[in-house]
Amino acid sequence: MTTRLIDEALFVDGDPPRLAGARCSACTTVVFPRQDSCPKCADGAMSTHVLPVSGRVWSWTLQAFAPKPPYRPPSGGHRPYHLGYVDLGEVLVEALLAVPRAEIRIGLPVRLTMVPAYQDEDGTEVVTFAFRPDPDGER
Question: Using CA atoms, how far apart are residues 29 and 22, in angstroms rounded to an integer?
Answer without folding.
Answer: 8
